[in-house]
Structures are given as structure tokens and as C-alpha cells.
Amino acid sequence: MATVRIDEKIKEDVSPILSELGISLSEAINMFLHPVQLYKGLPLALRIKGPIELNDGKGSYVCKHGHLHDYSDVDFDELEKDAKSGKEYKKVDDMFTEILED
Q1: Residue 58 DSSP one-character state
Q2: More confident residue, 51 or 77
Q3: What's this model's pTM, rounded to 2 decimal places?
């Protein structure tokens, strides 16, 4: 076991990121050092991807997990009209089937 001095500001900034990744600060340090030892060099960086707006005017985006959420074919005016009419669906699949048929 070793004691490591870490700048407080850096520790404060990275703690929420590591927490979102489910990694402790100690685990992150070990994850960094093992590949350094193995490959005799620096390991690749781990990053949290933020959502990327597609600017299609429909709210489509690529989420932080890399999945495309494409709303370009959705008629939001029709959805709002249906919502206000009190129309109900028993299954989400039925709703999407009807939306995509239009």
C-alpha cells in the first residue's frame, strides 16, 4: 500500500466522474498504473461521452452511450393532438406502430 498526494481541486473534479463510472479513486489509480507497468507506457483515457445534438429541429441526439435517438420522423403535433384527445394505448408497441404507419 502507498500514500499518494493528489491535488484537492483535481480530486474534487474527478470524484463525480469516477462515481458515475462506478470506480473509486484508489481503483482509478490502480487502473492507470497496471497498464503503465504492463505496456511500459501510458494507458488510454476513459471518458464519459456527453449527448451530441443533431440540430435537426426535432430533438434528435446521440446519447452518452453512443445510441442514436432519432425523432426526425415523429409528428409531434399529431402526438400532442392525440394526447389532448385522451387517446389511450394498451401497449407502447401499439402506439409506435400507429405513429409509424402515418
Answers
A1: S
A2: 77
A3: 0.41
**Confidence band of 13 (pLDDT split at 50, 70, 90):** very high
For the cut 70, the answer to whether the pLDDT of residue 69 exceeds it is yes
**Cα separations (Å) of 24 from 11, 14, 84, 97?**
11, 10, 47, 44
CA angle (66, 24, 10) in 5-degree steps: 85
Residue boundaries of the structural domains of the chain: 1-48, 52-101
Tell me the sheet residues that pair with 68.
Answer: 62
Q: Three cell numbers at 8?
A: 484537492
C-alpha cell at 60: 434528435
